[in-house]
Queue: 4 jobs
Job 1
Amino acid sequence: MNKLLGPLLVGLSLAASLPTTASSRALPVAFSDGVELIANIPDEITATGARLVGDYFYVTSGDGLSIYDVSEPTEPTLTGTLELFHDPYYVQEDLDTNGRIAVIGIGTSQTVSDTLLVIDVSDKSAPEIVGKLARSIDHTLTCVLRCRYVYADEGDVIDLRVPSAPRVVGSWNEDLMTQGTHDVTEVGPGLVVTSSNPMYLLDARRDPANPKVLAQAELPGELGDSIYAHGNQWPRRAKDSILLLGGEKVGPCSKSANAALYTYDVSRWRSAGIATEVDSFHLDNGSPTDGNAAYNTNCAHWFDDHPDFRDGGLVTMAWYEHGTRILEVDSQGQITEKGFFLPLDGSAWASYWIADDIVYTVDYNRGIDVLRVMDT
C-alpha cells in the first residue's frame, strides 16, 4: 500500500460523506454512491475465474480450486479446496461446472494448458480429480448439455459422459472460418455462442460432436481496429432481445474496439443474423477521485448480467485496474454506468451476481471482494 495515501475511502458524489465499509484488509479503495464493500477474502490471491451453481461458488486460483457456501451471500464460507500444481500465471479463467463435476485446464506455460482435469465436486468438502485428458487445451473450457460434453475454445469437443475417461470426439469449428476464438458460451441447453470473429450461434442438441451453425455475425469493430471477442452472454437462456459481448486489450483502455462492452440486437436473429451492434461502453484513464484508474496493464474482462435482466438491466463487469463497473443497459441496448468499485491495488478479472444486490469480484491481487449494489 502507498503509505502516503493511507486507507482511502472515497464516495464519489457531490456529497462529501465517507461511507462505512467492512473489510479484512485496510487497503485504499474508491467507490461510487450505491456500491458498498462488505468484505474481502484475501486467501484467493491470483484468483482468476469462478462459477456460481446453486448455493455454491467455485473459484480457481494459482493454488487450485476452492468451493464456498454462499447460501448467506454476505458471509461466504469456505467448504473445501483442491490443490493443483501449475504455473500460477496460467489458471483456468472461465471455470465451468454443473455442481457435480468441474473441468479445469492446467499447465506450466503462459500460453497453453496441457492437461484437462475432470473434478468431482459433488462433495463440497472434498473435491477430487476423477479424470484426466493429456493434450493441448487452450485457455477456456465450456460445459455443454449439463457437462456431458465440453467445448474447448480452439475447437475440440470432449465427451464427458464417463467423467473418468474424457475423450475427444469432434471439432465444433471444423470448416468454420474463426479468428481469435477466446471462449464459447452455452447460452441455452445445447445452444452455443462463440466469442470469435465471426461470432457463431451453434446448435449442439442433436449432434454435440458436430454442431449445426444456426447464425453468424461479422464483428467489424470501431475506432480503426476489429473487435476481439473475449466473452459473451445471452441473457434468459437465449430468449432475451439483447446479447452482450465483452472485449479485452493490453494497455490503455480508450481508443480501442477491444476495450469495451458491446450490446447487440438479437431480436430478429432467425431472419437477420445473430446480431446487430447497438452500443458500446469504454473507459478512460484518469484520476481515482473521478472513478478512473491512473494506468492500465489490461482493460475489460469477464462480466455477468443481473438475474432479473430482461430486455435490459444491470451488468457487472471486471475491468482490471479499473475495478468493478456496474453498468445499466436500457431496453434499446444503450449502456450507461450506474456505479463502480475501484481498489487502487486491484486487478479485477471477473465479476458475478450472487444475489439481487450482491456481487463477488474475483481479483488477481486482492482475492474476492464482496460488494453490495444498492437501489437495484
Job 2
Amino acid sequence: MKSILLLFAFLFLTIISCKEDNKKKPLDLDHVWYSGTMLDKEPQITEGNSDSVWYRISYFMSKEKINQLNVKYNLLIDKKGNLKQLTILESDNPKVDSIVIATVKDWKFTAGVKSGKNVNSVYPIKLDLRVTGSLKPISEKEYLTSAEEMPMPVGGLYSIQSKIKYPEIAKRAGIEGKVFVQSFIDENGNVTEAKVIKGIGTGCDEAALNAVKSTKFTPGKQKGIPVKVQVLIPIMFKLE
C-alpha cells in the first residue's frame, strides 16, 4: 500500500514540476510568422527587379496567354530580410512557377516590423502581367473594411449565384449551407483577390470562389472617390 502511495506522490510531483518548467520556458518567436494585417510595417523589396519576370516569361509564351495568367505566391521573409521559403497559392503553370522561383530566390527585403521589432512575416505576391508585367505585393491594408458606398456586384448577388455550379459530390451528399468569401475589390470594380473565410467543403468552396472572382463590381466610394474595399460575400448552396 505504501509503495502505491509513494508512486502516486512521485507522479504528482513530476506533473507539478513539468508545469513549473513550462511556465518558465519563454515563447519561441523564431517560428512565428506574422501576416500583413498583424504587422506595423510590411516587408519591402530592397534588392531584386520584379519586372524581370515579364521578360523571362515572354520568351516562351504569347502575349494572349500571358494576359490570362493568374498566379499567386506566399514568400516567407525572416527577421533579417532573407527569403526562407516560397509557397504556391494559386497556379496552373509549372514553367511560370520555376521562373518565379529562380527570379526571387536571391532577392533581399526589409523585415516586417511589429511593436518596434523585426519579425518573421508572410509576404503574399501575385504575378500581374496585364498591367505592369511584374510581381506585385498583395496588401490587405490597402483595402478599406468599410466605405460610404460599398462595392456591389453588377446585377446584384443574383449575378454571382447564377454562376454557381453545384458540385455533384455535394449534391449526392446532401450538402447545403453558406460559403463566406472575403473579396478585395479595387477602385475599378475588379476582384483582385478572394479567399474563403468559412466554407462547407465538397467542392462548394471552390465553386463560390470562382463565381466571385469572375464577377464585376461597382467600385466602393469614399467622398465620391473610388477606393479599394474588402467585402464579405455570402454564397448560398441549397438543394431544390
Job 3
Amino acid sequence: MAEPLAESDLVIRRERLRWVPGRRRFPWLPFLLFATIVALCLLQPIIRPNPNALDVIDRLQGPSAAHPFGTDSIGRDGLARVLAAGRLDLLIGLSGAALAFVIGVPLGLLLGYFRGRGSELSMRALDVIQAFPLLIFALALLAFLGQATSTIVYAIAFVSIPIFIRLVRTETLRVRELPFVEAARSVGNPTPRIIFRHVLPNVLTPSIVQFTSTAGFAILLAGALSFLGVGVRAPRAEWGAMIQDGSQYLVTDQWWISIFPGIALFLTVLALHSIGEGVVRMRRIGE
C-alpha cells in the first residue's frame, strides 16, 4: 500500500500545475489550444456533417455567415473540410507517433541496457536510415507500398522509430549506471525486473516529450506528402492537399482556400511542440 504524500509534496505538485505569469509551469495554454482543436474536429459531423457536399452556385465564395471559411473551386464548404481534414490528420499523426513509440521505446531499452557489438551494429544501421532526408524516405516508401492511409501511418512510424530508439538508448545508457540500478543488480534482481521496474520509468518522461514532437512532425509530414500529391487521395479532405489546391487561387485573391487549412496545420503543430517544451521545463524544475 502506497504511503500518503506529505503536505510539502502536495504543495510542490500543485505549484507545478498552477499557472503563474513569468514562471515555468504546466503548459496549460497550448494544452487547451490542442484540446480545442481536437474537440472541434471530433464534432465535425455535428458542426458541418458533409465536407464533400457540392454547391457550384456558391463556388469560390469568401468567408461569410453561411460559410465562415468560404468555399473552394467546386463549392465545398471550407469549414467542413478543414474540420474533416483535422480528424484525418490527427488520426494519421497520433497513430504514426504511437506506433513509433510502442516499437522504438522497447528497442531503445534493449540496445541501451545490453551493450555490445550487436547494439553498435544496430545503431550504425539506424545512422544509414537517418542519413536520408525523411521526406524523401517517406516518398520512397509510399511509392513502393501505395497511397493508402494506413501506408502513410506506417511510413511515418518507420521514419520516426530511429528517433525514439536513439533517445531511449542514450537515456538507458545513463540510467543503467546510476547507484540505485547498481544496487538492484547487486542484490540479485533479475534483468527484466531491473529494466521494467527501475530503468523504464526513468526514460519514459523524455519519451513522452518526444511523442508530442513526433506527433506534430507526423502531422506536418502527412501534410507535406499530400501537398506533393502522394498522400491522402481526393476527395478526402486533408490540410496539405487543401493548401495545394488553394495555392493556384492566391494570385486571384481567393486566399481563404489555402490560408485556413494552413492556419489549422500551424496551430496544431505549434500546440503539440509547445506541450512537449513545457513538459521539458517542468522536468528541469523538478530535478
Job 4
Amino acid sequence: MAQQNQANPYYEFLHARRLEAAGDADGALASLQRAANADPASAEIKAEIAALHFRKRPVARVEAEKAAKEALAIDAKNVEANSILGYLYATSVDNARAASASPDDIKNAVTHLERAVAGTIGIDLQMQYTLGRMYLRNNEPQKAVQVISKVVAQSPANESARRLLAAAHVSAGNLKGAIATLSEVIDFVPELAADLARYLEQDGQMREAAAAYTVALAEQPSNRELKLQRILALMKAREFTQAAAFAGEARKQHPDDLNFTNFQAQALFEAGDRNGAIALAEASAKANPRDLQTQLTLATLYSDAGRTSEALTITESAAKTFPNNKNVQFMLADAYADAGRTTDAERVLRQMLASDPSNARLLNHLGYMLANRGEQLDEAVTLVRRALAVDPDRPEYLDSLGWAHFKRGELNEAVKYLMAAADKLPTNSEVQDHLGDVYARRGSLQEAIAAWNKALAGDGQGIEKAAVERKLEDARRKLPR
C-alpha cells in the first residue's frame, strides 16, 4: 500500500483531503509532499500544500508563501496559489497600522487577488470583498466600488459589504452614493444606521441624520455617543425643541453625564425658553463648580442673553482656574470685547500669540477683532493672511480678510474674499451680512439684498436681525422703480 501511495500523486492528493478532514493536518501534509515528489511539475499540488499551510492555525505563513510561489513558477495563473498569496499579503496589510502598511504588500495583495478573481468561476464573495478592501488601501476607490458592488448584489443584507461599499463611494467623492447604499437596507439592517447618520451629516441633511441616529439607538439604547450625536444633529437642523426634549430624556438616563445638561440648556435657550435655560445652567454650574464645560455653558448663555458682566465674571474665574486652556482664553477675550474692554481683549490674544505665534485660529481671531474695531487695519490684514498661510482657503479666515479689506475701503479685494467665504458657508448669517454690506457700498443693491436675505435665513449667529432688516428695507427703497 505504501508503494502505491508514493507512485500515485492523485491518490496522495485525495488521501490528504481525507486526512485533513479527519483532523490530521500533519498526515495530510506528508501525503501532499509525496504527491509533489511524484509529480514535481504539478502546480495544483504545490498550491494545495500552500492552502494547507494557510488553513492551519496558526497560519504557517512562510511555508504557505513558499509553496504558493513554487506553484506560480509552474503556472502563473493558478487560482489557488494566487488566492493564498493575495490573502497572505492582505493579512500583512491588515496587521500593520494604517500608516505603516507596506505599499508593496498592498500592491501584491491586489495583483494576486485580481488574478485569482479572474480565474474563478462564479463569484467568490470573500475574495471579492478582500480585493475591494485592498483597492481602497491602494487608493483605487472606483475599482473598489465595482468589485464590492458585486458582493452586495449577491448578498444584499451583508452588513460589512454595505459598509465597505459606502466607504468606497465616499473615497470616490460620491457621498450620495454612500447614503443610497445604506438607506436602501436600513429597515432590515439597522446596524448600519449610525454610519448612515454620519454620512447624512456630512451631506448637510441634519434632520435625516437625526432620524437615522434614532434608528441606531433602537439597537443600542444605552449608547451615550449616539444620543449626543442625535442632539447635535437636531441643533444644527435648528430643531431646538426636539433637541431639548431628547437631551432631557438622556439627562435622566445618565445623570452623571453633564453633557446632556449643557446641551439641554443650550437647546432650551435657542428654542425661546431663555429663563428655563439659564435656570438649568445656573443650577448645574452651582452643583459642579469644577466642571469647565458647565461653567462655560452658563457664561455663553449669559452672554447671549445680554448679561455681559455675569458672563465676564464666570469666564474670568474659569481663566484663573484653567490658565492653560486656550478655549477659555478665547472666550475671555470675547467676553472682554462684549463688555467694551477692548484693550483687555487684545491683551489676552496677544499674550496667547506670543507663546504660539503660528496658531492660525489666534491670528485670525486677533485680526478679525482689529478689523471689526476699524483699528490697526494693516496689521489686521497681515494677521489674517498669516492665518491663511497656515490653513489656506479656510472660509472663516477668508471672511475676516474680506472684512478687513472692507474696513480699509478696498472694495474689490473685499468682495473677492467675501464671495469665496459666502460660497463655502452659504448658511452663515454673519458672512452673508458682511457680503451684503460690501455689495451695498459698491452700489450693487440687488446683490446686497440677496445676501442680506440669506443672512436672515441662515443660522442667525453673529448678526442683529433687526439691523439687517433695516438695511434691507433701506436698500429696497433705493432701488429704481
